[in-house]
Amino acid sequence: MHLHKYEKIWLVFGIASLIVFLSVVGVSAFSHDHTPSGGMDTIDPEKVNETAPFDNPGVSQLDDDTYQVTIVAMAFGYNAPEMKVPAGKEIIFKVTSTDVVHSFTIDNTKVNMMVVPGQITTKSYTFEKPGKYLILCNEYCGTGHHMMSSEIEVY
Ligand code: CUA
């Protein structure tokens, strides 16, 4: 096979740029000790229902200003009865999945978590305004993906 001189130059340039870019990303990630957003906690996805705090999903109050909401995501819904939390307090969401990758996304907020089986994803958020907020899954997770939604009430 014969390669034109310019083709060779661009091939070398392309491959060299790729190596440089990937090295920059890799070295900076390791040197800054990057972790996946949402934390590094793991869980056995087959034992979610027996593992605290997921054995008792829902809202719990940690102290005067902090609440925790524990949610189990599965095809095609979220298991967390009665999601009602106060405005102006720190809400810590802890989510995991029992099957495939989902998301836990609260409309009109900065809560947009990827929910991965085997991993516990954590996100802290403070609601400013009371109201009902739509919760959606935005990772395609199967035939019922479009029906996967819920609601959280902020009072
Ligand atoms: Cu769960 Cu899409």
UniProtKB/TrEMBL annotation:
Record key words, sorted: Copper, Membrane, Metal-binding, Transmembrane, Transmembrane helix
Keyword Transmembrane helix listed: yes
Transmembrane regions: 9-30
Signal peptide: none
Domain Cytochrome oxidase subunit II copper A binding: 64-155
Coiled coil: none
Keyword Membrane: yes
InterPro entries: Ba3_CcO_II_C, CcO_II-like_C, Copper_CuA, Cupredoxin, NosZ/Cyto_c_oxidase_sub2
Gene Ontology cellular component list: cell envelope; membrane
GO molecular function: copper ion binding; cytochrome-c oxidase activity
Cellular location(s): Cell envelope
Reactions catalysed, as given in the entry: 4 Fe(II)-[cytochrome c] + O2 + 8 H(+)(in) = 4 Fe(III)-[cytochrome c] + 2 H2O + 4 H(+)(out)
Gene3D superfamilies linked: Cupredoxins - blue copper proteins (2.60.40.420)
Domain of life: Bacteria
PANTHER family: CYTOCHROME C OXIDASE SUBUNIT II, NITROUS-OXIDE REDUCTASE
Function of the protein: Subunits I and II form the functional core of the enzyme complex. Electrons originating in cytochrome c are transferred via heme a and Cu(A) to the binuclear center formed by heme a3 and Cu(B).
Name of the protein: Cytochrome aa3 subunit 2
Organism this protein belongs to: Planococcus koreensis
